[in-house]
Amino acid sequence: MPETRRSFLIWETAISEIAPRDYYEVLGLTKNAEPKTLKDAFQNLAIKFHPDRNKEPGAESRFKEIAKAYAVLSDPKKRAQYNACGFAGVADFSAQDLLGGIDFNELFGGLNMGSGGDENRLLSRFFCRRRRPRQGLRRGADIEVSLFVALQRIAHGGDETVRLSHPATCPACHGTGGKNGAAPRQCDACQGAGHLTQSQREDEQRVLIPHISPCPTCYGRGSIVDHPCVTCRGTGQVEPEKSLSVKIPRGIEEGMVLRLAGKGMPSPDAGGDTGDLLVVVRSRQDPRFERSGANLLRRETIALTDAVLGARRDVPTLEGSVRITIPPGTQPGTVLHLQGKGLPEFDSERHGELLLHIAVHVPETLTAEERKLFEHLRLLAKPHNQP
Q1: Which of 120, 137, 167, 329 is 20 to 30 Å from 288 at the Cα level?
Q2: CB–CB of 351/341 below 8 Å?
Q3: Residue whose C-alpha is closest to residue 256's, from 284, 278, 275
Q4: Would you say domain 290-385 falls under CATH 2.60.260.20?
Q5: CATH says 143-173+234-283 is which class?
């Protein structure tokens, strides 16, 4: 699958079996904590759980948790992304990305904690263990799916489920296609080429013309699985249906993409890295509203008498009905603005508007009494219409 260029933001989403603790909870703080409070809380906790001072089981894990929480919350940009999207907002940062800009020696005030005073080296030892790239193995292709989300979910954020079915590496044979992971053997008929070449002589010109055809023994694969894997029937792949949980950030923009690392297509090479799943988030159609960025649009049709005389009526919003006032003399096409009744803006505390486009219903049929009243009204209004 070719790589697609996009103009919108891609948030990286990490999936784990055990969700980590909220970073504010780790440091014992609230979301509105000032930088000075943040720094003090980190220093106190880090000294308490420093592995060179605290030899109790779990102290090292607690220290790493504290350091990672501070690395995210002490950086304004990373903190904003974390506030908006939770762990998904900072999932793409490596340990070096998180810790590289922090001078832990300065934070500890020059205290010698048993590591030679070099806390940056200590943190690097804990976090920066890079996995060696798998040389020569191709990466699996990315998969893109669309997820239609209700406006209510966009307004508040939360978890949504993505269901998909696509080929994955067989867990029984690890992609080899052979029973118990046995590797296929090279086809003797074609010597692993997957095709056979035969020469045919043409009588008139007495030349040999090569004729290439797929190998009938291995069916063009170049290899043969003598004892196929029962689970995948020798293909090396299975196609299970999966349900994945995706965290929808509050106020997510239309068409924004969430990347689920390692949930895409398997590598064509056994042992290669799996591709990613790209979830394109779109707004589910709502009979009440139409979305326009953070604003919601609604067509509100009123009676001719209400347009002339004014009225009060209830209109729906995402948080329940509200009563509005239709001013006297409202003209068709008037737009009434309900401040703060739209969607929240992504990564912001602001809200959009609910825009009510007013349409006026003109009755198509009249009773005799109604016609009489309208005729009388026309007579009353006639002097006003004459120059």
Answers
A1: 329
A2: yes
A3: 278
A4: yes
A5: mainly beta
